[in-house]
Structures are given as structure tokens and as C-alpha cells.
Amino acid sequence: MSLKNTLLLFLGLSLLSPALQSQTNHNVQNGKSNNGWSAYGGDAGGSRYSSLQQINSNNVKKLQVAWTFQTGELGKYEGTNAREKAAFEATPILIDGTLYFSTASCRVFAIDAASGAQKWVFDPKVNLKNDFSEITSRGVSAWPAPGDKISQSASKRIFIATIDGRLIALDAKTGSPVIYFGKDGVVDLREGFGKDLSVTSPPAVIGNLVIVGSSMGDNQRFDYPRGTVRAYDANSGELRWSWDPIPTDSTDKAWHTWNGPKAHKTGAANAWAVISVDADRDLVFIPASSPSPDFYGGERLGQNLYGNCIAALRASTGKMIWYYQVVHHDLWDYDIAAQPVLIEITREGRKIPAVAVGTKMGHIFVLHRETGESLFPVEERSVPASDIAGEEAHPTQPFPVLPAPVGLQSITIADAWGITEEDKAEAEKRIAQYVNKGPFTPPSYEGTLVAPGNVGGIHWGGMCYDPKQELLITNINRIPAVIRMLPREKVTQLEKEHSEIMRAETGRQAGTPYVMKRDYLFKAGNKGLMMQIQPPWGTLLAIDLHNGAKQWEVPLGYMLDPRQYPDAKNWGSINFGGAIVTAGNTLFVAATLDNHLRAFNTKTGELLWEYALPASAQATPMTYEVNGKQYIVIAAGGHGKLGSKQGDFVVAFSVP
Length: 656
Known about the structure:
By secondary structure, the chain is mainly beta.
């Protein structure tokens, strides 16, 4: 498959009250000793911080491969087109000296954390010939959660939620389904929701509850399944509560923020990103996405609460405690894609419990964890109106003053770029065709440049937090999207007349008057992927949460061959996958298209070490200590839609 085609395919781009049961998240956030990585985000609050410092900024250059494990995943794709959509995005977890992780086909592996030797594998036998929007699984979860004082006598289980809509409980020792959970170890998440429902993120675990969101390809029709979040009993699989981000009760104040005869039939607003939990406070933090379809809201006029909200729910009951909407009436696919990060920040000598919410807009909201009140200034500002018949863009949007927005916020002809003068002139001409008046410029007939764009800003790779330095760290993309809204009856003719419209990804948006066409500011050729805006195209940055100021920002990776283009290492790369940070003043990140795992100095952003992996790593690393030795582990399997180098590797590093 050509580079151009793979890129175009890509760009079409979780009962006793649990409140007292787990101290793990609290301990990690306060920098107490922890040698493991018990959840996808390191802890249940997604801090991706480790207090380990055997590997540190002084000795990280000595890192060597300790062991390599291969899953044999590529063989699963034979006879299907799965390889074009598959991505190995998992982050392993460590439980009792064993690493557990999932592959793109949702197979679950247990391997020895010291040697990499396989203990067992479970195959849910997902039919990869089905038409999945995404073929990936970002990880598994363990129950009881480490530190759970009430349920530790229970046999340990590993939970996976699959892309074909199943929640499966496995015995942690054997990998066999726990037959008295659900039906023979399985809960059918699609029952009552239909075949469009998938799950790509690991479930959240709190007390005796397993909580799941959902993923769905939300641009093809208006009435997708609703993005209901559900909590199941971890023992029996019985449904304990559910929460719908699209209100169903007319007495709910949010009901009246959905206007129009079909508004309450809208779908999605689902939580496909990782859900965070705070066991001490009996809270679950839900990152809700855009209602369907992403780019036209004429059938759902109004503010559209609780879509695009971070919602704090009482874990034991599912009752909403507070919400905060980061986008009103989303027309840009500005989902909350990153896991909410539970942190503590210092104010006047006191530790304040907070939740940091990173967004595709590059906006970061730091909210009080118990009330949802913003801890930094946020302004409600006027934004452009829509010129699409039937659409009514919301007149204002929330803009955080601090931390200042990161990544692209607008784009003009002055931002055009090319290797040659001819390339730059071509980029200028292309940019001049479209309109951009800031990050909330509505889609248009002629074409709107959306910056940061739906894969720009802070993506699903998310953020990490160093509690000692109170630094919030994230990698970002700088990839403007081109969005056109075409009257349905004119699509065929317009495709014939304009080759650029033909190459763009199509969102049918059935049930609306318009078809969406989406493209990006790049050109593909024999030189590789050529972006048409000024670099860097991917960066890594740190924000000091004492004052909300950016402490440093550096380019991350490269996309063009540095042997041919010596400056390419300063240009950055499209990246997917997050960073982790340790007490050793070191942070680790892969994510880029150049196949490298890298280590940076947390305080300064200085590159300390890099290693060329056997395949690209669009995943988040993790770290742990066993038998007195610290390891850094990364899943390196590539990304079919990105066209990055594919494989089936899990690689561990240590200092000899």
C-alpha cells in the first residue's frame, strides 16, 4: 500500500463503597515508594509517574536491552486487511511480578517481568474480517486493585474490553475465563447498543466495580449508539449503574441544551479515552467526546451538555457530582482524548487535589477534583459564527488563560513551508484557499483550516505529572485539518471537479443534509511525508503548575531522513503514544514515526538517550522494579494507518 493511501486511511483519523478501599493512587501522587505499574496510567489516576530512580538522568545513557518478547501478532492478520488498521498501542501493567498486556487483536499475554518468558496467552478470537473503525487495544486492568484492603483475598483477575464489544474476566494465574463472571466469563457490551460499539481502552477498576466506556466511528451517521458509561460488579458481571452523557430525563437541566426535533436521538458523546478513578473520594472521572456526527450539529442545536465534558461521578452510585464542558456544541471532533490526570498542586503552602484535563485544542484545564472549579483563570470568549445552512455554532467557547494553550491556535499564509521554494509556494497557494479565524472556526462549504485539528494538540497519548517538581508534561501534534461540508446531492459532481476533494476522507453523516470531507496540510511523495506548515510538527513540553507557565518545549522525533535533511531532527514528528516520568529526573517517550524510544531531562527537556526500536512504537512506555532491578518497557508494533514500521515486539531496558 502506498504511503499516501496509508496516511489517508489513518487521517480518516469501568456492594461495598469503594471510597475506603484503595490507597495506591494517593500514595503514588505523594511520591511514596512504589515499585510497580499497576494500571494503564501507572496508577488509577493516570499520573504516569514512578518514584523509582535506579535509572536516572546520570546513568540513562547506559541503558541496554534486557529482553525482547514477540507476540506473533502479525500472523493473526493473514487473510484479512487488519494490518492496514492495526496498531500495537498497549501499555503493560505489573501485578505480582508478571506483566499483562493486550495486542491489537485483543489477545492477552502474561509474561515474566524479569525475563520476558511467556506464562500464558488468551485469545478472544476477534473476527478481524469485520469492519472495525480501529483495530487496537491499549491495555488491560487488574482486580482487585493493588492496595484494596477489603478484597485482596479474592482471586486476582485481569479484565479486557474488546473491539468487538465484550468485557472478559480472566484468572490472573492461568489466563482462563472466570466462568461465574457474566456468561462463562463474558459480558456482552453490545447488547442493546448494536454492532457499532467497540472498546479500545482498558476498563477502570474501583472497589468491586469495573467501569467501561466505548468507542465508535462517529462520522458516518447521526444516530450512533449513545455513549453510555457502565459499571459492572467485578465478581458477577451484573450491571450496577450506567450514565448517559446525552440526557434522557426532561427534568435534567442539560435536557434543554439539546434543541431540535431529532436532538435527543443524537448518539455518541462516548468516553473512548481512559477513565480515571479516585478511590479515596469515591469518584470516577469520565472524559466525554463529541456527539455524532462530529462536524455538523444542525440536528442537535444548543450547548449539548454533557458532551465534551469531564464529568465526576460518585463511583458507588453513578450519580453526577460535577461536570465541566471544554467545548460547547462541538463541530470539530474535539473529543477529550486524553486520560484525566489526578494530581495535587501547591497553593499557599497547601496541597490542592486537582484533575488536569488535556484536549485536542491544546487547551489544558486544571480543575479542583472535588468541585470542578477551575484553579487557573478561564475566559469565555466570542468565536466565529457558522455559514452552513441549518447550523448554529455556539457564540462563545472557554479559553484557559493559564496554562496558555499549546500547539497551533491559528494558521495563515505566513505559516506555509516547503523543502524547496516550489514546495513553499504550493503550500501558500493551498493555505490561501481556506479560512481560519482561530481554533473554533466552524466547518464551511469552501473549506476550513482547523488548527490544532482533530489529531492535533493533546491526543490520546495524554499527559504525565512529576509531583516533586509539579511539572505537567505532554507531547503534542501540530497538524491542521481541512474540513469541507458538501451538500449531499452535490458530492459526486464536486468529487469529479476537484481532485483534492476526491482524495479526502469521507464522513457520510447520514441523517443530515451534508457529507463531510476531511484532509490535512501535507503532501506525500518520494521524499516522504512533507508537511506544508512550519515545523516543528510534534513537540514535547513541560508546564510548571506552580504558576501555569511553560518551562520548556523541544521538537520530538523526525519524519524525514536526517542523512538527506540534516535539520530534520529539529522538525519533529507526528506522534501517538504518551510519556512517563520518574523520580530520577528522567522522562521516557516513543510515539514518533522514526521508531525511537527516547529519554529526556525532566527539568530542562534535554535529550539524554535514544534507541532505535525494531518497529515503530505508537504506545506509552512503563517502568517497574523486580529483584532489585528497574526496567523500562515499551510495546513496539507500529501503526497501520500511519504507515509506520510494524512488528510484534515488547522490549525491556535496564542498566547493567
